[in-house]
Amino acid sequence: MKSTLPVLCAFATASAALCQTTHQIPLAYNFNGIVHAGEAGAPDDPNGFRAISDRALDFTAGVPSDALLNAYSLVSAPGALDIVHLGDRNLVDGGNWAFDLMPDGDNVGTQPTWLPSSDQAGPQTTVLVAPIALEATSNASFLFQVSNGGGQFDVTFGFATAAPLTTSLSAGDWFGGAYLGTAQVDAGSPDNNLSIAEGTVDLSAFSGDMLTSITFSNRSNTSAGYAVLAANVFTDPRVTVSCSLPLEYNFNGIVHAGEAGMPDAPDGYRSISDRGLDFSAGVPANPLLDRYSIVTAAGALDVVHLGNRNTVSGGAWAFDASADGDQIGIQPSWLPSVDQSGPQVTHFATPIGISSQSEASFLYQISNGGGTFDVTFDFLSGASTSATLAGGDWFGGTLPGTNQVDNGNPENNLSVTEGAVDLSAFAGELLVAISFSNRSNANAGYAILAANLTGTALGAEVCSSSPNSTGAGAALTMLGSDVAANNALCFQVSGLPANSSGYFVNSMETILVANPGGAQGDLCIGSNSMGRHSSNVLHSGSSGAVSFSPDLTAIPRATGPVAAMAGETWYWQYWYRDVNPGMTSNFSSARGITLQ
User: Fold this and answer.
1) CA quadruple 41, 43, 49, 50: dihedral positive or negative?
2) DSSP string computed for 224-274
3) C-alpha angle with apex 243: 237 to 248, nearest 5 degrees?
4) CA distances (Å), 228 to each of 208, 272, 290, in order?
5) Which of 45, 175, 209, 588 could form a disulfide with 476 if both were Cys (CB 3.0 to 4.6 A apart)?
6) Is the dihedral of CA 574, 575, 579, 580 positive or negative?
7) How big is the CA angle at 325 (ends 319 and 330), to the nearest 5 degrees?
8) Cβ density class 490-514: b for 16+ within 10 Å, e for less
């Protein structure tokens, strides 16, 4: 196994190279839980494969080649420990698969020689032989699975000098998805596909420190087995930023405040199957959800649905022809056709610039066993590219869920999957549309909740921000294209108070006016020549972040809108409402960019 693999090295100029590096972590594996060549059909082999529950991944033909797995180093050899197991095989699934005391010819094996104790629920720690120097954009990512309904677990990072960081990762039940699976416990016979989840943790706050260890602990579901397959730590001297992509939603499939208990409301909530996310108390604070812009309003379309509600689950939840008081609603007025299985396309009014570090990421759910779907990216030049994303069944996880179809009553938790597509090969292109199509499981409903585009940050900061009521400052970043004619800039402001409103201001000059009009922060761009994007008032919602794409052909100015020209330097800053301690306003950091 490799410990470090440089990838995606892009040249910024003829004389300087900026390389992003992926450190593939050799984890301290403690379980042989993947079926490799020659391991199936030998449940009592004292040195052989054992399932973490009743199933496992089937890698008898080798580790599959795909965009997700290729970024990691997975164990490919038979007869080797290949996962970090977090659990107790003798207790999983209510003890149904406890090891036999002696070989008896069934599909449950004896406790293998490589497993000194069946209880591996305690902290499982990997100490890095070579500590990793972290930078301003560093993060860690993991591939993992959770059996028997899904759940969450903690990951703790140890550092050379800083106090440890503990965060949680979660996944739904592993059943369904894109990867070959086995059944019959330790016999490892080919069976239904399984899914693999990927989770990412931001380590940018530890820039300048050294990562020394990674520990897995505190599983939430004691009836499940947890398998961590691989881990990467990413370092890069460049600054990246994400902007939300405004999807064209076609379905009201999340329960917001006031939407539960009204299955026949003509304009109300409908499930994509028999369940839905329960955001009636607002979008939960969650490390994964916080990075995206998710619809928060009741009565609004909030997911891109890929499917047919009348045929999902074998037609069990087909819309009623008329209201009859049960939990299944009538076809709502916002749904002109129940068949939304064809390509669902989002067109971008303003093209979005792609850089050498661009990646599109998506949050989604798949009901009824999980599956795959295609995402297609269309560019202004006529170029196009497609990728396949996969997810397991949505049941389980850490996010509040509902049942009773369109009644939307609180019930079991659900999971959300994140999938990413590398777009770096299309640097310099302008993204004009994204479409979702080709679901593999016609019996399932697919819901895409949100999308982000990550790219190399543009421009330069001309002043920092002052603390707001969160205790930190609001930071402005830019990505997209710095070519004026492309009209493809995107601004992201993070660190805002929740549910605050504001708008951008612009100028071609920099100044410094401390606390203008009693504001908490500093105005850093020219007051006399300042233009206001006041017709584009933005709201930070629960995430404390906003995204905005200015129209470079009509930048608002005091004397009227003007078009930006190549060679000009423009500055922007975000002006927003805050309570600190009384009602006031504040400013983000300011950034300038010279257009090409």
Assistant:
1) positive
2) S-EEEEEEEEEE-SS-EEEEE------B--EEETT-TT-TT-TTS---SSS
3) 150
4) 27, 30, 24
5) 588
6) positive
7) 25
8) bbbbbbbbeebebbbbbbbeebeee
Query: What DSSP letter does each residue of 182-211 carry, written as one string?
Result: EESGGG-EEEEEE--EEEEEE-GGGTTSEE
Report which residue type is found at 462.
V
Per-residue pLDDT at 253 exceeds 70: yes
- Report the distance separating Cα 25 and Cα 140, nearest Å: 10
Whole-number pLDDT of residue 287: 77
Residue pointed to by tokens 């998710």: 294
Stated as kind and residue range, the H or E segment containing 560 is none
CA–CA dist 213, 116 (Å, integer)? 23
Q: Which residue bears the tokens 């100028």?
A: 507
Tell me the pairing of strands 254-256 and 276-279.
parallel
Find where tokens 């500055």 sit: 571
Q: Residue 282 pLDDT > 80, yes or no?
A: yes
> Residue 251 in contact with residue 272, Cβ under 8 Å?
yes
Rounded alpha-carbon distances, angstroms, from residue 381 to 227, 457, 482, 490: 43, 23, 17, 20
If phi over 0 gives left and psi between -120 and 50 gives alpha, with beta otherwise, what is residue 145?
Answer: beta
Cβ atoms of 569 and 592 within 8 Å: the answer is: yes
pLDDT tens digits, one per residue of 133-169: 998 778 899 999 999 988 889 999 999 999 999 998 9
Q: How far apart are CA 277 and CA 296, in angstroms?
A: 12
Helix (H) and strand (E) counts in the chain: 1, 39
Distance CA 379, CA 393 (A): 32
CB 282 within 8 A of CB 296: yes
Which residues 6+ apart lie within 8 Å of 380 measured at CB?
A: 351, 429, 430, 431, 432
CA geometry: angle at 393 spanning 27 and 141, to 5°? 25
- Whether the per-residue pLDDT at 14 is higher than 70: the answer is no
CB 344 within 8 A of CB 305: yes
Secondary structure of residue 478 in the 3-state scheme: strand
Distance, CA of 511 to chain centre? 39
User: H-helix or E-strand containing 95?
Assistant: helix 92-95
Residue 4: pLDDT band (50, 70, 90) is very low
What pLDDT, on a 0 to 100 scale, did the predictor assign at position 547?
Answer: 83
* Burial of residue 77, with CB atoms counted within 10 A of its CB: 0-12 exposed, 13-18 middle, 19 or more buried: exposed
DSSP secondary structure string for all residues of 2-58: -S-EEEEEEESSSS-EEEEEEEEE-----B--SEETT-TT-TT-TTS---SSS-EEE
Cis amide bond preceding 581, omega within 30: yes
What separation in angstroms does the CA of 188 have from each of 44, 118, 144, 173, 249? 12, 19, 19, 19, 42
Distance CA 238, CA 225 (A): 38
Q: Over 492-526, what HEC string results? A: EEECCCCCCEEEEEEECCEEEEECHHHCCCEEEEC
For 50, residues 6+ apart whose C-beta sits below 8 A from its C-beta are 31, 32, 33, 89, 99, 109, 112, 115, 186
For 94-98, 310-314, 426-430, which range has the lowest pLDDT when averaged over its residues? Answer: 426-430
